Backbone:
C-alpha cells in the first residue's frame, strides 16, 4: 500500500492523477513560510535599568565586581557615546524595579534614580570618574532572530547567538528544489484524495479536505485520507489518516468500507493484521501534509501522535497551528513539531480573476 | 426523555449524584490501568442513565487519539443508532463524567459536538484543555460553537493516585492526602 515517490515518481503520479486533477493544480501556488513560536516574531520587549555616566574604560570593573548582573546577560554592560565629552561611557548598574516601562516604550519615572553612592556605598571611585545615574529602557529578552537583534541593538548594545537553522527558515529557501518537488507531489496527493473524497462524501466537512502521511526517511507515502464526517462528526481527514496508520501497524479502530472511504493507491484498506509490526511508536518521525490548517482537535491529535513536521496550504479561521493557537510550539506540552504553511495554497489572484470574469 | 433540555428543566444532579456517577467512571479508569493503559475512564449520562462508557485504548489500538472520551463518543453513537434517536439531540443533553480533565484534543471534540456538561476528577496539567494548558472549552472559536460547561474536582485525589501508580509504579491503595488536583505524571493522556 505504500507508494514510493522516488525514481519512478513521475510515472506513479501520472498514473494516479487524472487529467481533471492536473487541471486543478494550476489554482495553487507555493509560498512556503515557517510557523514559529511567538517569541520569534515578537518585537522588542523592554525592562527598566539604571546606568551611570562614566569616563574611563579601565575603572568600570570596579562597578561590575560590586554590581554583578546575573539577569539580562544578552546586554552589553557598556555603551559608548563619544558625543558626551566628559563621560563617554554609559555603564549598566542593575534593574530598576521601581520604575515601570510604559506601553509606548518610554520609561515612566515613578521615582528619582538613586546616585551611585546610594546604590552601592562600597564602590570606591574618584568623583571625577563618575557622572549622573539615570534610568533607561533596555531590551528584556535575548534576540532570537537577526531582525530582533537589529531592533534590540538600536535600543542598547546587545549580543546575539545566531541559530543558523532558524535564520535559514526565515530568509529561505526552506526546502531545496528537490525537497519542494517532493513536498508538492505529496500535497497534490492530498488535494486529489480530497477531491475523490468529495465525490464519495457529499457535504462532508472537516478542518481540512485531505491529509497525507509520509515517512521522510524512505520518502514513502504511507496514507492519504479525506474527511468521513457524514458517518462520524469527528472523523476529520487527520483523524482518519492517524487511524489508517494504526491499521498499517496492525491495530486501529475505525471500520470503513470502500463506499465511505476512498483509499489511495491500492483501493484497499491496510490489512487488519500484518506480519511485520515494524512501524514506529504511533506516528513518530512522520511528516503530514494537509490541504488546510487543522482544527484544535486534529492538531492535538498530531501532538499526541508525535509527528515530525506538518505542511499545510491555507490557514483556517479557527486553525490551531498559526491562526488561533500555535499548538506545535505550546509551552508545557511533551511534544513539539515543525509547521510550514503556504504549500500549494489556493492562488487568490487566479480565483479573483475567475470571479471577476464570472461577475462580468 | 425530551424534557431534559439544558437551561430549561434538564437533569441536574446534586453533589451526591455527581459522586455516584464519578465512581462508575473510576471503575473504568481502574480497568484501563489493569490493561496497561493510562488510567482514565469516563461515562456519558443521559436521562439519568449511563448510555456509553469508555476508557483509554491508545496502546491496544496503536492510535494516540483513542482516549476514553473518544472511545465513549463512538459507543454513544452506536447507542443512538440502536435506540433510533438523534446523536446531536442526545449529546447536547448528556453529561460526561471523566476521571481526568479532558485533554486539548478531547475538549475540542466535545465542544464541537456541543456536549451539555463535563464533570471531571483531577486536573490535567500536561494536556488539559479545560483550563490547565489551554481554555478550549471557553475560548472564542466560532466553528466550535458556544463555550462548554466544565466542573472539576470530583474524586480528584483518587484519579491522581491511579495516574501516579501508572507512571511511577506507586500503589494506588496507599492514600496520598497531600495531593490536591495536581497531576505529577510524566505523560498523562486523558
Ligand atoms: Zn479537525
Ligand atoms: Zn483526550
Residues:
Amino acid at each position: 500500500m505504500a507508494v514510493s515517490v522516488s525514481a519512478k515518481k513521475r510515472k506513479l503520479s501520472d498514473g494516479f492523477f487524472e487529467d481533471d486533477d492536473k487541471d486543478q493544480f494550476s489554482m495553487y501556488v507555493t509560498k512556503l513560510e515557517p510557523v514559529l513560536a511567538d517569541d520569534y516574531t515578537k518585537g522588542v520587549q523592554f525592562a527598566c535599568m539604571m546606568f551611570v555616566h562614566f569616563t574611563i574604560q579601565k575603572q568600570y570593573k570596579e562597578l561590575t565586581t560590586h554590581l554583578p548582573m546575573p539577569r539580562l546577560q544578552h546586554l552589553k554592560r557598556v555603551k559608548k557615546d563619544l558625543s558626551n565629552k566628559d563621560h563617554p561611557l554609559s555603564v549598566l548598574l542593575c534593574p530598576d524595579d521601581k520604575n515601570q516601562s510604559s506601553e509606548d516604550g518610554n520609561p515612566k519615572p515613578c521615582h528619582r534614580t538613586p546616585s551611585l553612592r546610594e546604590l552601592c556605598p562600597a564602590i570606591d571611585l574618584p568623583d571625577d570618574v563618575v557622572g549622573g545615574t539615570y534610568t533607561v529602557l533596555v531590551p528584556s529578552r535575548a534576540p532570537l532572530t537577526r531582525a530582533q537583534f537589529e531592533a534590540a541593538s538600536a535600543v542598547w548594545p546587545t549580543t546575539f547567538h545566531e541559530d543558523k537553522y532558524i535564520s535559514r527558515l526565515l530568509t529561505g529557501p526552506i526546502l531545496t528544489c528537490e525537497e519542494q518537488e517532493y513536498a508538492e507531489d505529496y500535497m497534490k496527493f492530498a488535494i486529489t484524495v480530497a477531491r475523490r473524497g468529495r465525490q464519495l462524501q457529499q457535504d462532508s466537512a472537516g478542518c481540512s479536505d485531505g491529509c497525507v502521511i509520509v515517512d521522510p526517511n524512505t520518502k514513502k507515502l504511507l496514507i492519504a485520507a479525506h474527511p468521513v464526517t457524514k458517518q462520524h462528526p469527528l472523523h476529520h481527514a487527520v483523524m482518519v489518516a492517524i487511524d489508517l496508520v494504526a491499521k498499517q501497524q496492525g491495530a486501529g479502530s475505525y471500520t470503513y468500507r470502500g463506499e465511505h472511504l476512498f483509499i489511495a493507491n491500492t483501493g484497499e484498506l491496510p490489512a487488519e493484521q500484518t506480519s511485520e509490526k515494524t512501524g514506529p511508536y504511533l506516528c513518530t518521525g512522520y511528516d503530514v501534509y494537509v490541504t488546510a490548517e487543522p482544527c484544535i482537535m486534529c492538531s492535538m491529535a498530531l501532538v499526541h501522535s508525535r509527528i515530525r513536521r506538518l505542511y499545510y496550504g491555507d490557514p483556517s479561521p479557527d486553525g490551531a497551528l498559526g491562526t488561533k493557537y500555535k499548538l506545535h510550539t505550546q509551552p508545557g506540552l511533551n511534544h513539539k513539531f515543525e509547521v510550514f504553511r503556504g504549500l500549494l495554497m489556493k492562488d487568490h489572484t487566479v480565483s479573483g480573476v475567475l470571479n471577476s470574469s464570472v461577475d462580468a | 426523555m425530551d424534557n431534559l433540555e439544558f437551561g430549561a428543566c434538564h437533569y441536574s444532579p446534586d453533589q451526591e449524584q455527581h459522586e455516584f456517577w464519578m465512581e462508575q467512571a473510576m471503575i473504568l479508569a481502574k480497568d484501563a490501568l489493569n490493561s496497561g493503559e493510562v488510567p482514565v475512564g469516563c461515562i456519558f449520562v443521559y436521562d439519568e442513565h449511563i448510555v456509553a462508557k469508555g476508557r483509554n485504548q491508545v496502546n491496544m489500538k496503536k492510535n494516540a487519539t483513542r482516549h476514553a472520551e473518544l472511545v465513549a463518543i463512538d459507543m454513544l453513537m452506536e447507542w443512538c443508532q440502536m435506540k433510533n434517536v438523534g446523536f446531536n439531540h442526545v449529546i447536547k443533553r448528556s453529561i460526561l463524567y471523566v476521571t481526568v480533565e479532558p485533554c486539548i484534543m478531547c475538549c475540542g471534540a466535545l465542544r464541537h459536538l456541543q456536549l451539555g456538561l463535563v464533570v471531571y476528577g483531577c486536573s490535567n496539567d500536561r494536556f488539559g484543555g479545560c483550563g490547565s494548558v489551554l481554555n478550549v472549552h471557553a475560548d472564542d472559536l466560532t466553528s466550535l460553537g458556544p463555550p462548554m460547561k466544565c466542573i472539576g474536582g470530583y474524586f480528584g485525589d483518587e484519579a491522581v493516585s491511579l495516574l501516579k501508580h501508572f507512571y511511577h509504579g506507586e500503589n494506588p491503595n496507599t492514600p496520598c492526602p497531600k495531593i490536591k488536583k495536581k497531576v505529577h505524571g510524566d505523560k498523562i493522556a486523558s
Remarks:
- Strands of chain B lie at 41-46, 49-55, 95-100, 117-122, 149-151.
- Chain B touches chain A at residues 57, 60-66, 70, 73-74, 77, 87, 103-109, 112-113, 125-127, 129, 133-134, 136, 139, 141-144, 186-187, 189 (CB under 8 Å).
